[in-house]
Amino acid sequence: MSRSHYEVLGVLPSASQDEIRVAYRMRAREVHPDTAAGKRSDASIQMAHIAEAWRVLSDTALRRAYDSEHRREYTQPITDPKEQFFTVPVQRASFPWRMVGFTAGGLIALVLVLNALSDPAVPLGPDGLLQAGSCVVVNANQLAVEVDCAEEHTGVVRALVGFDMTCPTDTQPIRDRQGMGIACVVPR
Question: What is the pTM of this model?
Answer without folding.
Answer: 0.38
